[in-house]
């Protein structure tokens, strides 16, 4: 069985109207036959966050939903918690504080089981903090602004479902362009994904990312760039030159492994975040 799909959501996804992103997650998880686990560890709202999404997924026709709020590493290693994740066809990580999420479940049996279920074909989605935690390298926290600066972001280890990228969320709304540039200047082997609110990247087993939702995903590729990040001190601006930049709205696709946009004849973005099509 091939790996499942990963969905990284920029936060503030539509939960009331068309619910394009949440509908896609439910569909990939099996629709009305899905078994969905909602992990709300990142949220300061505790079980309320899990209950909120459980209600949404119930409204989308899912009958088997398991809210899970691990607050300690002991709970994240508890066999009772793990039993709820076994057999899940969809795993959803809520927003909140990504450092709370990674420091609570990173390196635990729960984190291992999430990866295992993904490798067995389950879809794993994360919104806001949950999206940031999907990558191996994660922005733990940082400053806003359009100018890249030294020490603009603190890094931590994520869960590792998307090992080749680094995800930043609420991208346009919170002006995080500078900090993503600064991170890529210091880590040019990674591909930066800046995801707007109510926007998601759906990454299939083939490493192809499809953009859905109302906004765009900004992709920053620093593989061929030059920078003085290694020589800058304090919080001063840093130089980065020769970055390859892609801004992709709904319907467009990008090959994360080869760092290229997937072109198609007469490619057009389609209303509602459905797949791009050629006419």
Provide structural commentary.
There is one protein chain. It is built from 8 helices and 17 strands. By secondary structure, it is an alpha/beta fold. Strands 3-2-4-5-1-10-11-16-17 form a 9-stranded mixed sheet, with helices on both faces. A 4-stranded mixed sheet has the order 8-9-12-15. The C terminus is likely disordered.
- Strand count, sense and closure of the main sheet? 9 strands, mixed
Report low-confidence residues grouped into runs of 5 or more. Answer: 273-279
Question: What integer is the average pLDDT?
Answer: 94
The quaternary state of the protein chains shown equals: single chain
Distance between termini?
Answer: 33 Å
Tally of strands = 17
What string, H for helix and E for strand, traces the elements in order?
A: EHEHEHHEHHEHEEEHEEEEEEEEE
**Shape assignment:** globular
Instruction: Give the number of helices.
Output: 8
State the helical fraction: 10-25%
Structural class category: alpha/beta
Query: Order of strands side by side in the largest beta sheet?
Result: 3-2-4-5-1-10-11-16-17
Tag the structure with descriptive keywords.
nine-stranded mixed β-sheet; four-stranded mixed β-sheet; alpha/beta; 279 residues; disordered C terminus; single chain; 24% helix
């Amino acid at each position: 069985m091939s790996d499942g799909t990963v969905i990284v959501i920029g936060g503030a996804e539509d939960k009331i109207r068309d619910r394009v992103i949440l509908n896609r997650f439910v569909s990939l998880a099996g629709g009305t036959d899905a078994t969905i686990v909602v992990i709300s560890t990142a949220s300061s709202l505790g079980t309320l966050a899990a209950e909120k999404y459980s209600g949404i997924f119930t409204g989308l026709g899912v009958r088997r939903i398991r809210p899970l709020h691990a607050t300690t590493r002991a709970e994240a290693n508890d066999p009772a918690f793990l039993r709820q994740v076994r057999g899940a066809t969809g795993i959803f990580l809520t927003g909140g504080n990504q450092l709370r999420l990674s420091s609570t479940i990173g390196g635990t049996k729960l984190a291992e089981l999430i990866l295992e279920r993904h490798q067995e074909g389950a879809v794993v989605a994360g919104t806001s903090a949950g999206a940031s935690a999907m990558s191996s390298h994660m922005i733990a926290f940082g400053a806003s602004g359009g100018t890249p600066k030294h020490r603009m972001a603190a890094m931590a280890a994520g869960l590792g479902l998307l090992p080749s990228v680094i995800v930043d969320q609420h991208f346009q709304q919170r002006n995080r362009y500078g900090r993503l540039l600064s991170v890529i200047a210091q880590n040019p082997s990674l591909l930066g994904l800046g995801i707007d609110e109510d926007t998601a990247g759906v990454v299939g087993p083939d490493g192809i990312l499809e953009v859905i939702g109302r906004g765009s995903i900004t992709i920053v590729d620093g593989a061929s760039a030059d920078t003085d990040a290694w020589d800058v001190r304090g919080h001063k601006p840093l130089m980065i030159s020769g970055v390859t930049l892609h801004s992709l709205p709904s319907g467009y696709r990008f090959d994360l492994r080869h760092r290229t946009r997937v072109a198609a004849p007469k490619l057009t973005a389609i209303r509602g975040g459905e797949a791009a099509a050629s006419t």
